[in-house]
Amino acid sequence: MEIGGLDGERCIGHYRSVDKILLVGEGDFSFALCLAKAFGSAGNMVATSLDSNAKLLEKYSKVAENLKQLRELGCKILHKVNAHSMSQNRKLNRELFDRIVFNFPHAGFRYAENWDQQIELHKQLVKGWNVKELAEEAGLELSNEVEFDKRSYPGYVNKRGDGSGSDRQFLVGESSTFMFRSVDNERCIGQYRSVDKVLLVGEGDFSFALCLAKAFGSARNMVATSLDSKAKLLQKYSKVAENLEKLGELGCTILHKVNAHSMSQNPNLNQELFDRIVFNFPHAGFRYAENWDAQIDEWNVKKLAKKVGLKLTDEVEFDKGSYPGYENKRGDGRRSDEAFPVGECTTFMFRLNPYHATNSKLMSLTL
């Protein structure tokens, strides 16, 4: 077992604490618990079973304790999740995961392991075990194939899962972990990628969010928020209704009345993990001339970041022309819907320091 990594990242086998992980077809949830203990937290994990909670308690002697520990470590647990139809599961189909894990997919052991009837049941579950061909059909390509060593995952106990011997192990023999990745091309705009889960904070007319969504071809990887209520936005911005409608069609999650100062306590956000948190031109609205002393304060972003456990990783010039359709807004007063001159400005990118907790891998702030 390997523990450790860059910037507080903790690893076990091929799995990292900085990745959002979905576990499919858990038996007694001992594999999920093994990862959670290695990471020191399960806040980055969703663990699922095909069986109901009641059925699991009938089958497995240690599942109640395993589930209790997982919940205490912050794991999201879902039951009655079928691997064949989980893309339609409303609790999963809006989520983005870095890793989806399915260990030893099988149909339960109703017969001896080497009986033809038993082998045929397993093959029916995964269409003959031709995993490379299956992956290609689903738009995936094999990126690696490594030996699976059960000893690398202390506490993990594979289960038969059916019949009178449900709680017993089965022999795994020589086995491999096949790792696949999407062959769909990653789409980028500026510093932002379609494969990242992105939280946008303090949106005005949501034109920046829409710019990203159009570049990605989808907004399913995005949560866009505003401080104002929807009603207030409709009063302020002439194009916000159209922008919100388009974002909704592209799959964006939209939240209003989200205060950047208290969003870590927001129940719609505090259980989520994001790859990027974006806050463009944070300001209190322009009630005075842009250059009045009452309006401008010294931005000491590096010092502020250090206080909350972030460190600067990059600093790049912000070019508004790189984000077609984006209109920065004054946001307050009679001229709310007007742009303000941005002049020379910079996007500061921060990442998590190892000894602080946050729900983002990278935060960008444009000033």
TrEMBL record:
<feature type="domain" description="25S rRNA (uridine-N(3))-methyltransferase BMT5-like">
    <location>
        <begin position="296"/>
        <end position="330"/>
    </location>
</feature>
<feature type="domain" description="25S rRNA (uridine-N(3))-methyltransferase BMT5-like">
    <location>
        <begin position="22"/>
        <end position="128"/>
    </location>
</feature>
<dbReference type="InterPro" id="IPR019446">
    <property type="entry name" value="BMT5-like"/>
</dbReference>
<dbReference type="GO" id="GO:0005737">
    <property type="term" value="C:cytoplasm"/>
</dbReference>
<dbReference type="GO" id="GO:0070042">
    <property type="term" value="F:rRNA (uridine-N3-)-methyltransferase activity"/>
</dbReference>
<dbReference type="Pfam" id="PF10354">
    <property type="entry name" value="BMT5-like"/>
</dbReference>
<feature type="domain" description="25S rRNA (uridine-N(3))-methyltransferase BMT5-like">
    <location>
        <begin position="199"/>
        <end position="289"/>
    </location>
</feature>
<dbReference type="GO" id="GO:0070475">
    <property type="term" value="P:rRNA base methylation"/>
</dbReference>
<protein>
    <recommendedName>
        <fullName>25S rRNA (uridine-N(3))-methyltransferase BMT5-like domain-containing protein</fullName>
    </recommendedName>
</protein>
